[in-house]
């Protein structure tokens, strides 16, 4: 099996790929859109994409790819701990750090640590955490924020670990493939739908279909339609498999009420 | 009146401040948290913060500040067009552009334009679009993506305008102050609440309160609780003012069903 992830080696996406299929061949792609295209074109069999972080919330780019750019199905979910580390060139000391590189989101996640421990260091943005690690070999006074695995891969040293401001920082990934999963008895289903925006009660009427059937919603999220402010696409995860009779009946009723419905797939609930 | 915004001069936040109160004294702060703190501490009377973009979706940082970090109320909303421009040093030509700086989000918004017109240019991240404009005066082959106003403020020239991949790109801002607004007859109210996460039907029961009272929901959004994956804070905007009798009755019923409820304020609907 070949598994596509957002590269380079050392990203949390690679850690998700390793967790899902330790023995699979890993294929690094340079963008989330590329990860999905790799499966569509046969370069890989499955793709891992982050959907949600416990601190930052939804990964909008993945949701938009699921909605707009792929027909692949969700066949699994997994949860990966996110532990940010401060990485330096081997042998470098904390006192030598003058500038710290990372993706703006990772810099934001570690703001408390940076203010307490490196109040005078300059912060510089990179396009990825892996790109930040490369900067430490270009500048004598540079450190980077990235995963410990990124440090291993690029030959950097961990100066401090667990430097994120929030504990319990985890990211939920989905595994995409041509087919979703067969029923396991402990499943979830992910869907997206739109409502007629001149009839605002429709969202509540649709959510009532799940409540009336006793299907627990585990998540509800909205994304902009991108055409007009105030018009949204709703994403809902709920317990149950689309092949179960009661679930199929609810999906039929939701389809009748919604302007548009897409079932991303049914898959076993992540059990840790 | 003094109005705080995310600086430096030339940001879309400054354009929102100008649109809300053209004659007010503008106070630039270096972070969204700083913008809010400026009002709390008396440096400014009101603050403008972006909450939602028609293409990118919610501005998570603002939602989290409203939920966790301030008691200020929402007293107005406004919608500002987002037009990204390619800025260069005066006199520089397109053929001279070797590297393009911007915040990763702005680079992402202009991906189609960059691939078509500058396929060989290197893309570099900055911590802000305004920071990107400063780079064009440091590097001979650099251009930046930012607003036309940022170009004016920093003495740059607009080489191309409207370079975002999506048209109708607008950002909705809220205006925060110690008090929300008096009823105007055409109002909206913004609230946040949590449900007991072991009782998943509660969200639907709460939304039904609005539907049963005929109050249109204009927006529903969720944010992570940050403590545990799968536990959310819901943000809802609906039509009506909290001082109207019917709205106050619904809020009482929602408060009884929710684990926690916060009313951010009532304010006139933006009419363009």
Could you give the topology of this structure?
2 copies of one chain form a homodimer.
Chain A: E1 2-6, H1 12-20, E2 25-29, H2 32-40, E3 46-53, E4 57-58, H3 60-68, E5 73-81, E6 85-88, E7 99-102, H4 104-109, H5 111-117, E8 122-125, H6 129-135, E9 142-146, H7 148-154, E10 157-161, E11 170-177, E12 187-194, H8 202-212, E13 217-224, E14 232-239, H9 245-257, E15 260-268
Parallel strand pairs in A: 1-2, 1-3, 7-8, 7-9
Antiparallel strand pairs in A: 3-4, 3-11, 5-11, 6-9, 6-10, 12-14, 12-15, 13-14
Describe the fold and architecture.
Two copies of one chain form a homodimer. The first copy, chain A, is α/β, with parallel strands linked by helices. Chain A folds into three domains: 2-82 and 169-177, 3-Layer(aba) Sandwich (D-Maltodextrin-Binding Protein, domain 2); 85-161, Periplasmic binding protein-like II (D-Maltodextrin-Binding Protein, domain 2, 3-Layer(aba) Sandwich); 187-268, 2-Layer Sandwich (Alpha-Beta Plaits), CATH 3.30.70. Chain A has helices at residues 12-20, 32-40, 60-68, 104-109, 111-117, 129-135, 148-154, 202-212, 245-257; strands at 2-6, 25-29, 46-53, 57-58, 73-81, 85-88, 99-102, 122-125, 142-146, 157-161, 170-177, 187-194, 217-224, 232-239, 260-268. In chain A, helix 8 runs antiparallel to helix 9 (245-257). The radius of gyration of chain A is 21 Å and the shape is elongated. Chains A and B meet through helix 4, strand 8, helix 8 and strand 13 of A and helix 4, strand 8, helix 8 and strand 13 of B.
């Amino acid at each position: 099996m070949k598994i596509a992830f957002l590269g380079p080696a050392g990203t949390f996406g690679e850690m998700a790929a390793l967790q899902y299929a330790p023995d699979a061949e890993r294929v690094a792609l340079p963008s989330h859109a590329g990860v999905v295209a790799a499966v569509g074109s046969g370069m890989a069999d499955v793709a891992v994409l982050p959907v949600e972080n416990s601190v930052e919330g939804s990964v909008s780019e993945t949701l938009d790819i699921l909605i707009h750019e792929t027909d692949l199905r969700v066949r699994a979910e997994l949860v990966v701990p996110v532990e940010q580390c401060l990485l330096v060139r081997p042998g470098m000391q904390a006192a030598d750090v003058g500038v710290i590189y990372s993706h703006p989101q990772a810099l934001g996640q570690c703001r408390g640590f940076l203010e307490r421990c490196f109040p005078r260091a300059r912060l510089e943005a990179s396009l990825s955490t892996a790109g930040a690690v490369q900067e430490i070999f270009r500048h004598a006074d540079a450190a980077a924020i990235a995963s410990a695995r990124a440090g291993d891969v690029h030959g950097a040293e961990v100066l401090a670990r667990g430097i994120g401001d929030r504990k319990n920082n985890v990211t939920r990934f989905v595994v995409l493939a041509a087919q979703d999963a067969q029923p396991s008895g402990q499943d979830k289903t992910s869907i997206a739908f739109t409502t007629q925006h001149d009839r605002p009660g429709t969202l509540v009427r649709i959510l009532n279909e799940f409540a009336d059937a006793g299907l627990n919603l585990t998540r509800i999220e909205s994304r902009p339609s991108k055409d007009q402010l105030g018009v949204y696409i709703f994403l809902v995860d709920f317990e149950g498999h689309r092949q179960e009779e009661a679930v199929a009946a609810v999906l039929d009723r939701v389809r009748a009420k919604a302007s548009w419905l897409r079932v991303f797939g049914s898959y076993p609930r992540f059990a840790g």
